[in-house]
Amino acid sequence: MVTTAGPRRPSTLAPVTGAVESRQERKRRTRQSLLDAALRLLADSSLAGLSLREVTREAGIVPTAFYRHFASMDELGVALAEESMRTLRTMLRDARQKPADDAIKGSVATLVAQVRKHEPHFRFLVRERYGGAAEVRRAIAAELRLLGSELATDLGRFPGMATWSSDDLRMAADLMVGAMLSIVMALLDVGDHPDDLAQVIGVAERQLRMIALGMAHWHPR
Amino acid sequence: MVTTAGPRRPSTLAPVTGAVESRQERKRRTRQSLLDAALRLLADSSLAGLSLREVTREAGIVPTAFYRHFASMDELGVALAEESMRTLRTMLRDARQKPADDAIKGSVATLVAQVRKHEPHFRFLVRERYGGAAEVRRAIAAELRLLGSELATDLGRFPGMATWSSDDLRMAADLMVGAMLSIVMALLDVGDHPDDLAQVIGVAERQLRMIALGMAHWHPR
DNA sequence: CTTTTCAGTGTACGCACGTTCACTCAACAT
DNA sequence: ATGTTGAGTGAACGTGCGTACACTGAAAAG
After folding, report:
1. H-type helices in chain A, by residue range?
2. Domains of chain B
3. Of these four, A212, B59, B94, B151, which has the most CB atoms within 10 Å of its CB?
4. Among B21-25, B52-56, B121-125, which stretch is predicted with the lowest mean pLDDT?
């Protein structure tokens, strides 16, 4: 018994400060607690295997209140996809601004750090990218395409690649995004043993280096 | 009303020939019809969103008979994973024995043909590789690792790569497998418009070519 | 000070699910 | 011939689900 039959104040956990909350602020917080609850539960199963009731139970509200925030679980899935992609994009933006001593080693290191830090988000993205409902997949695919565009633009600024066609830039960017996602998957699968992690990192670095080598010798058309 | 209250002969569709069937042959056929039914239904949803009753309904048997073949849906999922990987491995084996005029163009062409031919199998693999239950994921991952090993061995036979470390061979093979799977995903997502398909094929060929270029200039350690 | 709004509550429903159990009856072993 | 085996049947169960509905009471609007 955690909540002692908490009477009329809505049962969502009280705000950190004891101060009163505006109505929309409270709503936003409850919505977020639904997203957080879902993300927590998604460590164990996929969105398809998650019930509305489970999520509301975990979030600490009654099932019917769910509809005040989302029309369906799929809609919650789309919201989660957007939240997760925001995480991913922020990460890439930060990585881009960093000085690049060894760009590849650095990129992999940031990737590893971010995956560890936002593991549930990445797990969700990887799980639902192809396994999820149509709308969720579409939301993720759209964001991923956007991400490819950004990277392509970036690549075009590199000295040797200024003359590349936008088509080729796009192709190379997609190849790198794909490789990055493969690495993310491997990172999520890796066990607790630190040797495994080092192994995955080493392979990732060499794979990216191989792609970079291919790019360096590419004859753009 | 399709079956007119079919009396005592078990309701699974009669064998093509009217000949009598041995008991184990009939069991094998029913088991296969369960797998086929599941694969058919999996076009619309993931394994997690599929119920035991749905599958038996589609297969034309009663729910409880399911247990004569699998202990759970997850077990059926593992069987499906094995079946699908058999398809994939057969494909790669065939591709390997073909003469290679333009190896990359040829590989992509076979890939496209096979994906079209066995679309449900590939869709299942891609969907469940990360979205599925732990056991299913493990089954797929194990088969994929095996596939990487085979490819690594193959690569080692290429003239320029004889001196590569087995580690590097493995790394390169995994990179190619990953790229191949990305291409499969793209092929499954592609719409009916033939231009889209041509676009995907073009990108795939150039991506593989870029990786090959990287391999050609690799300095093995 | 009233009235309105609306996030969250509680009950109640019908439904599909997984699983149990006792059964039938053709194929197989003896 | 006779007995055993086991794939498929059919009825029944408990459970958790999504959703409808009428509600409450604090915040917002008047």
Report:
1. 23-41, 52-59, 73-97, 103-117, 119-131, 134-156, 166-189, 194-216
2. 23-68 (1.10.10.60), 73-216 (1.10.357.10)
3. B59
4. B21-25
